[in-house]
């Protein structure tokens, strides 16, 4: 027997000052041990902590020890405390806490984050208290040890704190209800508060209903184990509509345990709270009051005039403490007050069902073996209920009497499948059901009679397998899985996974199985089971998928489907779009339409803009609904003309875009005739515009706000110098007051109001241009740290559930903390821990976690390096430059929330030690850019900006080229660019003939994928899913022709071809069994001997295409699927199994010139020249280096046409070839090849060798041409 040692006079202790529900409760209780199964207390025990000796310790042979406390009545428990066994080495270091009303069916208590594990003791004498985040109202408590002192054994003393709990209970049998009748015909309320607690035996049932004649209604009901609230105010259209929309909350509410509900309504605003989860919403309908006629019903909706008949399925279970606007409904019913009318059998004590569940914990090793009791009628029958989230798992397996035949019942792809194995190679199968892994209870029956085996699921039609002979079940039935090695039943094997979920009501041949006997070892065998409880947990409540991601789950984890959201990652946290046009330019993009996400991983979402990259400044252009000139007549100040502008971005997105830009402007073209802007007599405005904040503005040019003037006044050229605007001269001829609004805090223009066009001959003509912004304030927002003790401080990081941190740094010191934020125990930190290692560490309550990325070259090389750290409830990751991603999964049942309370320290720590010395720029956390420069201006030891040639926003290196600092200047690293030359601007061109091709073979699937787990690979693919960037130039007269193909191992492909008529076609085959998406942007032929520049950019379903500078198109694919495991990219001739038209173009190859080809981060044409002989690049046929791109650029201003164009092009090609092979100097060719080899060698060399590796390709820029910027922190 278990050992009990008891002691001490017990007293109330003060757990927390001021809490009125923290009395000592165990004084009224009694204790059961694991091996005692008596339903009542065999003896009174007292367990004391500090003041008492002794304690509880189970037998060493006890497989699943627990300690159970009976409080004699339902109590409200608010805290627990534990201690080890007195005078011993026995203590519990971790445990579960279960509770029950009956002592039979138990539920695991979970803390705020869904964490079930309680931290216990570290010695035998210390007391560990836990204040419960939400109280338990129950009679029985059970402590289940998980871990204990490895040098001792389980030892436990416990105390429980709380207070008495008063309950008004009503029991509904599924055919009954309570009606609360009003004193008047109807009750109209603008404020309602309804609260109750319930426990249900079914997943369906009405808890509350009321309705009125004008269309108001309120219904609260259980549906599929979730609580649904239907609420409508004064809208008759919705009363009889089948499209009524419910607000749903909660999950698994049919678990026979108590759940609390609170409905709070004021006018149209409603809060619905179920247990600890709250949802806020606004009601449907026109009114603010809820009008209910005659009565409210609880437990069902009785049909008027037909007692005992109900419109919907009634509630079956218990309701307690039911209050409607302060009225205790159950108390009135119990006292038989006339306001309450009872329908059916409503009793006032809660009956206790005997539905006890068992949890199968492991998907690999759990099983329950029960003997097959003989059936008097022959054959066998098995019946049980199950619930799970897993789409696969073995439910039942048995060897049949005729060996080697056996039956297997399993969940497969979310359906129920019965398999009859007649031999090792032969089997018969039947399936039924749909989504049986929905978390609900399902009833399955399996039986053999005569020559049939029948399977029945819930109320669905039975499925049957015909047998050749009559047969019985074997000696044992295996539920949930099979033993790893079973000599007694070698036929039992887990097909893939064992069952992970709950079972109950198991009966064999109509005999119920008593699982208490299994626990005591008196019946069957088992492994990895938890008795008396169903441990199912809804991991999608709350939904941790961000930005509208759809949550699905298995038993151990949840998954987020980010399709169509514009976000990616494990929790749909990361935007798949760049934050600005400037960011797209830095990736090597050219002008075109792009989706930008101004706040990154923030809540705003992406919007489409046009990025104009033809100038030194990159302009972001946002259009609106009225860009054409508009003529206005007949308006007065009393009845003005009003136009509201709807932009292609939301107001919040516009505010983020404007705030993040260096400068914005918007042109206002305003022409007038006898139409004034201001009143001549008093200067009051007759017309005005409204800014982004809704404020009226009366300046009409670049003037400062508040000055009622126009541009002509600034330029001192108004037609009448007596007025500040041309229109105010009030002449009969047309006047113009066009200006550019450039005070960006007021932009964009949201509305224009014109009020003086009602006189004879009076009219105005206006046009509001698009919003145009340039620059990205975040890209080069930097700070330099000169002292180890210095730092920048910002408000506490708001990152409880997710945090993504990204920045660039450069330094010459070996170590230093980039940023840190602390809580009481939690923390988050990113630091350079050694010259070549960046670490990301944090603790959310599960113990410290450290991720480290080690570089093969020093990171303190005074060059810019990129760091991105992310932590969410599913995983953490760390990325440094292009090095392999470090990835770590979060524990499935651990703490989730990162609780911080200190300031965020950037560049240092709270202790002023291990501070960073160097430059940090572009610090972005959860989509918010931190203004380092502004904060640095007021901080000692830190300065705004960063010294060095590569620290400004000017583009020294183009086309994805990387600027590298040198002591005497800078060099451009063009290794990631399709271009070459000193600034990565020179075209890299090759002439192809009919048989030529270049194939670039990707590593699996990209080079950055090396040395990563399969799970990490999945995360990397998700972070880059459905996103391709392609850019190239070509010149040819051939059609059809194959320009480029990208193929995958999964038979997907992208192809860019010229059709028979010379028109460009883009083919996307993303699904093998669907037709490909084909786009042809223009019917005109591109096989005209001119150089054409093509840019293709895909984000999800959206494909943006640009041809030269004049054709911009957007197309929508039928799917946003990603390219899975890219195999290769081919330029020119290709022979593969594509669609017929693509194969035809592929067989014809390509004759002409291809130039500066880029696909994502790969430049295949350049790689072919630099890496001849490499296993990654395969060259077939004859390739000739060319300068066709440069020649074409020099002739684009004088285009030729027709035959002349073709002749000139062919002649140029011949001249290039002849020049290359006959007249080029050998030494010049040798130098060029040497330069290309040096550039290739650079990719494998440390960064600090750039000067020697790029002696020809990367010209060293003379520092005399630039200002002397010294890095004083070195």
From TrEMBL:
Residue intervals of the Laminin G domain: 169-350, 357-534, 781-946, 1008-1188
Q: Which domain of life is it from?
A: Eukaryota
Which of UniProt's keywords are assigned here?
Disulfide bond, EGF-like domain, Membrane, Repeat, Signal, Transmembrane, Transmembrane helix
Question: What are the annotated disulfide bridges?
Answer: 919-946
Q: Where in the cell is it found?
A: Membrane
Residues spanning the membrane: 1200-1223
Keyword check for Membrane, yes or no. yes
Q: Which CDD domains match?
A: EGF_CA (cd00054), FA58C (cd00057), LamG (cd00110)
Q: Which InterPro entries match?
A: ConA-like_dom_sf (IPR013320), EGF (IPR000742), FA58C (IPR000421), Fibrinogen-like_C (IPR036056), Fibrinogen_a/b/g_C_dom (IPR002181), Galactose-bd-like_sf (IPR008979), Laminin_G (IPR001791), Neurexin-related_CASP (IPR050372)
Domain Fibrinogen C-terminal as annotated: residue spans:
572-624
Give the main location: membrane
**EGF-like domain segment(s):** 536-573, 947-985
Q: Which family does it belong to?
A: Belongs to the neurexin family.
List the protein's name: Contactin associated protein-like 5a
* Provenance organism: Oncorhynchus mykiss (Rainbow trout)
Lineage of this protein's species? Eukaryota, Metazoa, Chordata, Craniata, Vertebrata
